Amino acid sequence: MATGNYRVKTDKDWNSIYYRFKQGKQFDFELSTGIETPKGRWSSSKQEILSTAEMDYKAANIKLKEFNTYILKEFQSSKLDSQIITSRWLKEKISSFFNRETYNPEIDNKVFFAHYITKFIEEARNKKNKRGTTISSRTIQHYRTTLIKIQEFESYEGKKLKLTDIDIKFHGKFVLFLEEQQHLNPNTIGGYIDNIKLFCRTADQKDYNVSKDYKLSDFYSPTNETNDVYLTEEEIDKIYNHKFEQDYLTNARDWLIIGVWTGLRVSDLLKLRLEDIKDGLIYNVNKKTDYPAIIPVHHHVEEILNRLSGLPRKISEQKFNKYIKEACKLAGITEKVEGAKIVPVEVVGINEKITKIHRKKKGIYPKHELVSSHTCRRSFATNHYGKLDTLTIMKITGHVTESQFLAYIKITPKEHAEKLRAHWVNQRKAA
């Protein structure tokens, strides 16, 4: 006698329900139904999903019972027609039944947004971008952070969000939550909104029941001009020529100088090897974008390599960020400038738990306090802008679009005016 029963094979946050159909030693097949159950909510003895607020478990249980009855009837009909029962036969019956009933827990309007994001992240690990490379671990981590922010917002609101809830009203509340409760800056919030729009767009493309508000101009990604500083060439010379009494500051200074004259991200800079430098050229494959770049060795960098007979001692990013502030202070980079500094704040997390963390806060600070590992690449891009063609700089920094690059550099209106004045002076001399 043929029998069918359900089970789950995993113990994740969400788990697929499998249907096993067998008859003695004649056949034994098991396939996923496409229905998922939250962790710990499946009862093998009752063959049903237990009560849960995570999904419409009653509707799912009805479908599971109906499907078992349907399969047994189809099996009897197939026997009369002398059909051979195979795994493909079962797969077709599963597809036919659920598609015919237009039931899919992911397309159903009761699907939860956090659940969808979790599945999106799992699938993203195996996807490739437009350049044919896999999505970077950094991007995946940003997706995960966005998921955490959604979960913290749900906890704050006391409500689990469905895909249909991601509308203009949600946008306003979510942005306000991140501003007032999480103390995040507009650019960071904008990154989360960008991801949310991506999640909604991909769900929409797959015919999920999604609010269309994500397409509206009012569903915007907040942004503002970054306050990160850069070091001018004069300031770089001051730091380069300063004699430090402490060896650890000299070592950090040397890495800083290499950074401002190579434009490398800190993740690439501090992992630079001597074998990456050949015939006066630095060969680097950008860790974030997987983009190859070849950078000539600046005379400051050449002097450091010759003095040390190699690269400076290895240093952690945390210590690098700490020591270069101290080095810049001793070198006289103390002018008061506008910027954003990391300060302790209290934020509201999951279950409204208050957590003390650090966030950037705008203000007027001594410049050395604002110098960080990001200063290296930004200084390289800004100091060479207008002296080299933009495409050449972008090839070294790894920026993909010119608009992205122009938003990154830090040229003030006064500096633009000075560049134009210098151009006119050179024109007059040449005349």
TrEMBL record:
It comes from the Bacteria. One of its GO terms (biological process) is DNA integration. GO terms for molecular function: DNA binding. Residues 226-421 form the Tyr recombinase domain. Keywords: DNA recombination, DNA-binding. This is Site-specific integrase. It comes from Flavobacterium alkalisoli. The keyword Hydrolase does not apply. It holds the Pfam family Phage_int_SAM_5. Belongs to the 'phage' integrase family.
